């Protein structure tokens, strides 16, 4: 289970939840301080996480909180 949002300090985030414990399992790194719009995200076969942010599509290996790679969305995303 994943959720995204903005902290009280204005930082965007995506977190993965441990459903059985109701606690945050991972917080993924690599977002800008203040996203320009709503961050859209999706998972692929429980292996990769993709999210749109800063006119980029950002990818993470779901076993690692650090940003894996990005691809330019050519102004197609906020």
From TrEMBL:
GO BP term (any one): regulation of DNA-templated transcription
Cross-referenced PANTHER family: TOPLESS-RELATED PROTEIN 1, TOPLESS-RELATED PROTEIN 1-RELATED
Protein name: Uncharacterized protein
Organism annotation: Nymphaea colorata (pocket water lily)
Lineage: Eukaryota, Viridiplantae, Streptophyta, Embryophyta, Tracheophyta
